[in-house]
Amino acid sequence: MPQSELRIIISGGGTGGHIFPAIAIADAIRRRNPEAAILFVGALGRMEMEKVPAAGYKIEGLNITGFKRSLSLSNLALPFKLLQSSLKARSIIRNFRPGVVVGVGGFASGPTLRAASALGITTILQEQNSFPGVTNKLLSRNAVKICVAYDGMERFFRSEKIVVTGNPVRSEIENKTIARAEALAAFRLNPDLPVVLVVGGSLGARTINRSIQQGIEQLVKNQIQLIWQTGKSYAESIEFGNFDKNQLVCQQSFISRMDYAYAAADIVVSRAGAIAISELCITGKPCILVPSPNVAEDHQTKNALALVSRNAAMMVTDAEAPDSLINNVVNLIQDKTRMKQLSDNILAMAKPGAADTIAGIVLDHISHK
Q: If one looks up domain 3-168+353-367 in CATH, what number appears?
């Protein structure tokens, strides 16, 4: 198929864990076929509507939200939003005429891939977690391939459809071109003191933020520097007590250059989203994972245990974090042998080149259509 006829839709989003892998796949497709036409389909009001255009791609938005587990009037509008999103997804697909539609998870992927399958368009799934959600289990019935990051996914999907690719990681993180000295200078940190990077995902994490805030003076007392991504919604509520926050602490609502943050860090405190774990594996950083309890099927705990069982990470539960997270951070950063052990083991679990592998699968299925 001539390059000018390569037309691909990538659908999903909601969090950086869905958006950045999607962009990595698009970038890998463009490296192979610079003239490929790529359109993203996301959810209106979610961060993909900002991040995807910033990466140089067009995006269409669906008026879709998730089902809230607590009693909420917004749930009453969900059937109407689903119908509206399904109709708009069909219209987008008919107008754009893609040769393949790729689903990366998130609110928009369901209506888009269902519409694509109904219109006879080839669909491919990228399942990031060790335990897939209900939507991807349903979408897998019509998908030709399912790109996964973990072994043993035959429990959920038909084995002949599964390809173990790993999760796509942003190219600047995978390439690891930033020197530690350059990264420390960018954050204005002291090269002679250890650094902890704290990230609660692109939207922030309440428990992690509270735990760090409660123990920040203990970190400073131990001469431990902090790069802290709080999330935009929490940034203004962080309080620093009676000391200058510029002393040893670099707080940002969102870190746009995570390659610098990883390069500067000695250890990382993170949620256990699939993409965060994939990035930690690629960078080989010793980490303490605090899985979010507020996700479907408790998949973050399952993601974390997949590393803990191989002595490749430490885990602190969300409930334990306020009392024990800071002590675990201090103890780990003072134990160089343990840090080296965790680093070696997590690096051994890395699957580099995932975005290129998935791009190849996508392009193969356009060629064979």
A: 3.40.50.2000
Beta-strand ranges (E) seen in the chain are: 7-11, 37-43, 58-62, 100-103, 122-127, 145-148, 162-164, 195-199, 225-229, 249-252, 267-270, 287-289, 314-315
Q: What single letter denotes the amino acid at residue 8?
A: I
pTM: 0.81
71-115: per-residue pLDDT in tens? Answer: 555 555 667 778 888 999 999 999 999 999 999 988 889 999 999
Q: Which CATH superfamily includes the segment(s) 173-347? A: Glycogen Phosphorylase B; (3.40.50.2000)
Start-to-end CA distance of the chain, whole Å, equals 9
Q: How does pLDDT run across 257-314, given as a tens digit for each residue?
A: 999 999 999 999 999 988 899 999 999 999 999 999 887 678 899 889 989 999 999 9
Least Cα distance to 98 among 180, 17, 171, 11 occurs for: 11
**Residue 236 backbone class (left: φ over 0; alpha: ψ -120 to 50; beta: rest):** alpha
Hey, is 148 helix, strand or coil? strand
Residue 3 pLDDT grade (very low, low, confident, very high; cuts 50, 70, 90): very low
Where are the chain's structural domains? 3-168+353-367, 173-347
Q: How far apart are CA 335 and CA 330, in angstroms?
A: 9
